[in-house]
C-alpha cells in the first residue's frame, strides 16, 4: 500500500472550518488506498502569540523553556485535526514529536534530527489508522522537548517521509506551488511545474519562503520527491525532484529577493594573512549567519572587509565587531540596513554563459547600482538598495522571459505529458 | 533540606504580572532554604478556550485527543513560569507530567495516578534547581498523554508531595483558605485555620470547591499536610491535617451547598429483592454518580425509588432509566432539576446529638421543605428547593454560631498560639 506523508502549514489549520477542510483532504487520500501520515504546524498566529507571551515575561527566555512553550502550538492543532477526522468517521491518532520517535540533538530552538524511531507510527498505520504528527519538534537525547527552528515542520515531514519510506511528501500551503517570482510582486509570475533539488535549494536560500531550506537539503540527500501544493485546491502544484532529462531545461527558473539584509564593513584592517579568518571566526562564534563577503584594497597595507548578514543578526554582529576592531587595530566599522538582495536561479545557466551579463545590464538599465555580487554554478545574487528591489525583480523576471516561457512550457506540457 | 511542593491555580498565573508574582513567591521559598517543586495549572481561561475549540470541530471529541489538547495549557504556563524565575536569576526547569514521571492508567480525561517515578525531579532539585511540573496530566502505561480530570492539578501536587517526601504541600489559590461558608454568599463567613482530613473530605464532597476531593483523599491516605492559601497575600491560610487533640473541636466546621443537583424518581417499581440493585447497577454502568437515595412504599407491592445525581449526568441517567422502567415494568420515571443540596460538616457532631434537630428546625423556621436527607458521622445533607438554598446557607451559618465562634477562636488563638 502506498505511503503518503503530508504536511499542513499554519494557515491551512487556522480555524475550525479549515481544519475540517484538511481532515477531508486527508480522508480522501486515505480512501484512495494510501497509508497517511500528516504533519501539522501550529494554527495561524499561535506561535507568534506564544512568543509574545514569553516577551511579556522576559527579554531573554531560556531556550529550553522556549521549546517547551512553542511546542504546545502544534500539539493543539494536531489534536484538533484528529477530532475532525474522527468526526468524518475515520480513526486518527495524534503524536507529539517525542511520541513519533523524532530524536534530536540538544541544541534548543534549532535542534537537528539525529534519528527517527517511527515504530508507533508504523504500528498505527498498519492497524489502518491515520497518523498525525505535531511538526517542528522532537525529543532530545537528554529527553527534553526540542524545536527544529524555522521551517521545522517541513523538515519533520521530509524526515518522516524518509523514515517511513513514503512514496511522496506533499507540502500543503496557502499558495499553489513554487512560482517564478513572488506573485504578489510580479503579477505575471507563473507556477513552476517541476524543479530540481539544486534549483529549489538556491531559491529557498535566496529568499523563496514556500519551502524551508533544511527540508530541501534533507529531501535531496535521501531522494524524497516533494510535491508543494495548495490545501485550498486540487490542482497539481510544484514537484521538487532529482534533475533528469525529462525536466524542461529553463535557463532561469525564478527570481527571488531578500529584503532583510544588512551590510557591515570593517574599515582599514591590516592586510595580512589570517585577518579575514579572525573577523569571520568572531562572527561565527557569535552565531551570525554571514552571506556575501568582499574585501577591497584600501590605503597602504590596509583593506576594508564587507559582508552581508540577516538584519536580525545585526546586534550580535556589532557586539562581535567591536572586539574585532579593537583586537586588529582597525579604524572602526560601519553598518548599512538599507540593503536587499536579488537573485536569479536556474540550472540552465551552467551552459549559458550570458546570464550574468544580462542580469547586470538589466539592473543598470533601470539605474540600480550593484553593491556586491555572488555566484554559484546555478545562481547569481546582487546586493542592491532596498528601495529598488521590487523594480529589480520585475525587470529581471521580464528580461529572462519568464512570462513568455510560460506559454512555451504549457504547450510542451500538452505535447509530452510533462507531469 | 526541607522539601516544599506548591501548587498554583489558573487565576494565579493568568497573566504576565501574576506569573512574575508567583515566580517571586517560589524564589522566596527557595531562598528560605527549601527545595521547591511547583505544580502549575493552565492560565486563566486557557482550558475553557481549548474545550471551545474542540466543540467547534465535533460534539464528541475522542477522549485520547481531548487529553492531548488540554494538556497543552499547563505546558504553556509551566514554561512561562520557568522563564519568569530565570529572569529573577534562579534556575528553574519545567517538566511535563510525563517528564515528571507521573504514570497513570489509560482512562483518558479521568486517569488515575498509578506510580510516580520522580528521578528527574529529584536530580534537578539536588542540583539546586527549582522544578516546575505541568499539573493535571501524566503519561499512561500505553505511553499516551492522559489528564486527571477535575481538580487534577491539586492531585498532582499532593501525589508529588508524597513521592518526594515533602514536608508540606501548599495549595495556592485566589481565596485566603477554606471558609465556614462561601464568602460571596455569607458576608460573615470566616476562614478556618485548621481542619481534619475527614472534615475537608466532607466539605469537598458536598460542594466546597477550594480543594479537589481526590487530592484530599490522597493526602489523608499518605498523611500529607496541606496548606491552602492565597497567592496574593502572605497570611496563613487553612491547614488540612490529621485530627488530633490540639485541633479546636468545632461542632460544625462549615456549611456547604451544591446547586447543580437533579432528582430522578422511578415510579411504582415492584417491591421485591434485587430491584434496587438492578436500578443502581444500571445507573452505575452508565457512569452516573448517584448521591442520595430514598425508597417510599407506594401502592400494594410497589414502591417509588428516588435519587439525586449531578445535573450534568442527567442525560445519561435518563437513558439508563428508560431501559430500567421497561425491564422492571415500572410506571415510568420523573426528573426534577430545581433541587439543591445544603450540608453541615463537623467532627464535633459525633458527640453532639442535637445537630440534626437544630438543622431541621432552622430550615423549617424559614419555611424550607426537606426533600431528602442523608447523613454521615460528621455530615448532614438536605435536598431542598434550589431557589431557597442561599437563604438556607445563611440561616444555618447563623444557627450554628459560626460567626460568634470566630471571635472565640481568635481569642483562643492568641491564648495558645494555635498555628
Short description:
2 copies of one chain form a homodimer. The first copy, chain A, is of the alpha/beta class and 419 residues long.
Molecular structure report:
With 419 residues, chain A is of the alpha/beta class. Chain A has two domains: 3-174, Acetylglutamate kinase-like (Carbamate kinase, 3-Layer(aba) Sandwich), CATH 3.40.1160.10; 255-402, VC0802-like. Chain A is 37% helix and 26% strand. Chain A is built from twelve helices and 18 strands. Chain A has helices spanning 16-31, 46-57, 63-87, 119-126, 152-163, 197-205, 213-222, 275-285, 314-328, 355-365, 389-399, 402-416; strands spanning 3-8, 35-40, 92-95, 102-104, 113-116, 130-134, 137-140, 145-147, 168-173, 194-196, 226-230, 238-241, 254-270, 293-297, 302-310, 332-345, 372-376, 379-385. In chain A, strands 3-6-2-1-9-11-12-10 form an eight-stranded mixed sheet, sandwiched between helices. In chain A, β7 and β8 (145-147) form a beta hairpin. In chain A, α1 (16-31) packs across α3 (63-87). The longest helix of chain A has 25 residues, at 63-87. Chain A is globular. The two termini of chain A are 22 Å apart.
